[in-house]
């Protein structure tokens, strides 16, 4: 069972080889072929390239590094540690929120978190840290500790139309079981690497999706009210989920089902 | 001198503004409205479990469908795709977690409910009240359950929980 899960979640061609022929899970053979193809030429690479252009026009890495208070050459390492507490923000922020700060710092219009431009730019900025290990530090200061605690609380709170929580489907005692034909991923597993792999191209949606959007999609499917992007609770969820896969290498954009 | 002062103030303001430009909407109201009421114990109403084919058909429909909008077949008599307020009716989607006779694409988070009467009811391990309570609010039996809550949150009414219980406990071909 565990192996099958790894296959569908990690979607690695090698692992998929051990899937029994009679096990019909969410990945059909056609899906698997498509996945292999997408790995070769990920359509989201285009989005990241556009993000680079947009980011260069709007801010540039020099101004961006200045807002974060780091040297330009240290950006990759610094980016790998997000979400983090940023002094000038006076709170724990996501990369997308630092892009908003940086735009304002150079007197440019501030892009909305929901905008297509922001999705592309934040994917590009995170991709600067490709190859680095996610290095979030939830003990760095009291702000991070607070946000991590809040994130766990939000993750475990049963609510919404069916009284489910994130934990109902992602708790460790349930990982590997199936919701309908869908194996439940272990958000903390190396193969899932949730923190290092989003923004990712979602095959089922034919578009690039950010981690916070992905979490909103889970909320919507399970009848939980969607928590808005950028809210304290959403940032806290990102802190909590990112910390689960701390140490995983960053690889943006990846491909997900 | 005066010019320099102005400039200094302008920079100060813009530095302070950096924290102001971050989008950070307040979600507390949304979460408050979305909160789940405390676990509640229920007593199964009289005449709840029935052999009435119409009730069993409704139970079956609620069990196997996610919501009124996505359902392929039309609902049986006494059940509608929409609520009185026009919104789509949410069904049970029990099949997402449970196998049962004739289930297609079922999940396995919850126990297999196939031959439930024969295996669990006739043997005396389970009874109708247990099934009714489990569906209405599973937290009474298991505070850490991964199962959905169906009545305490207003998703289903008494009759629908009875329809589901009747379906699960019915002898199926």
Commentary on this structure:
The complex is a heterodimer of chains A (257) and B (173). Chain A is 48% helix and 7% strand. With 257 residues, chain A is mostly helical. Chain A has one domain (44-256): Cytochrome Bc1 Complex, Chain D, domain 2 (Orthogonal Bundle). A three-stranded mixed sheet of chain A has the order 6-5-7. In chain A, strands 1-2 form a two-stranded antiparallel sheet. Chain A has a two-stranded antiparallel sheet with strand order 3-4. In chain A, β5 (200-202) and β6 form a beta hairpin. The two termini of chain A are 19 Å apart. Mean pLDDT of chain A is 86; it is low at 1-24. Chain B is an all-alpha fold. Chain B has six helices and no strands. Mean pLDDT of chain B is 90; it is low at 1-13. The interface between A and B is large, with 48 and 34 residues.
Lay out the secondary structure.
The complex is a heterodimer of chains A (257) and B (173).
Chain A: H1 2-10, H2 13-16, H3 29-40, H4 44-58, H5 61-68, H6 75-79, E1 84-86, E2 91-93, H7 95-105, H8 116-127, H9 142-156, H10 166-170, E3 178-179, E4 182-183, H11 194-197, E5 200-202, E6 207-209, H12 211-221, H13 232-244, E7 254-256
Parallel strand pairs in A: 5-7
Antiparallel strand pairs in A: 1-2, 3-4, 5-6
Helix pairs in contact in A: 4-8, 5-7, 9-13
Chain B: H1 2-21, H2 28-33, H3 53-64, H4 116-121, H5 128-136, H6 158-169
Distance separating the two termini of chain A: 19 Å
* Overall domain count of chain A: 1
The residue ranges of chain B in which pLDDT falls below 50 over 5 or more consecutive positions are 1-13
The CATH class label of chain A is Mainly Alpha
Assembly annotation: heterodimer
* Gross morphology of chain A: globular
- What share of residues are in beta strands of chain A? 5-15%
Helical residues, percent of chain B: 25-40%
Number of strands of chain B: 0
Structural class of chain B: mainly alpha
Q: Structural class of chain A, please?
A: mainly alpha
**Which topology of chain A does CATH recognise?**
Cytochrome Bc1 Complex, Chain D, domain 2
The greatest inter-chain interface is formed by: A-B, 48 and 34 residues
Reported for the largest beta sheet of chain B, the result is: none
Number of H/I helices of chain A? 13
What Rg of chain A do the Cα atoms give?
A: 18 Å
End-to-end gap of chain B: 94 Å
CATH structural architecture of chain A:
Orthogonal Bundle
